Amino acid sequence: MHWLDGGETNLQNSALLCERHHTKVHHGFRVERQPDGRWRTWRPDGTEIGVPPPLLQPAA
Q1: What pTM, to 2 d.p., does this model score?
Q2: For the chain, what are the domain ranges?
Q3: Based on C-alpha coordinates, what's the Rg of the chain?
Q4: Under a CB-based contact definition with an 8 Å cutoff, are residues 41 and 31 in contact?
Q5: In degrees rounded to 5, what are phi and psi of residue 24?
Q6: Residue 31 · residue 51 · CB < 8 Å
């Protein structure tokens, strides 16, 4: 939860964003760290921004 909405300010609840993405957060986009350490992001309309799987798998 964003600190303006009552969330804490700490390292576990923070993200280093470039200026472009920081501005998007202030315009309704949401970024959230999951318990496993991965990030999820949502557009202002609530739809999640997914990351597609890689086109090629690394060689084994």
Answers
A1: 0.66
A2: 3-48
A3: 14
A4: yes
A5: -60, -40
A6: no
Amino acid making up residue 31: V
Residue where the block lists tokens 């600190």? 3
The answer for residues whose C-beta is within 8 angstroms of residue 43's C-beta and 6 or more apart is 28, 29, 49
DSSP per-residue string spanning the chain? --GGGT---SGGG-----HHHHHHHTTT-EEEE-TTS-EEEE-TTS-EE--PPPSSPPP-
Using alpha carbons, list the distances in angstroms from residue 12 to 16, 32, 59: 12, 10, 34
Per-residue confidence band for 2, with pLDDT thresholds at 50, 70 and 90:
low
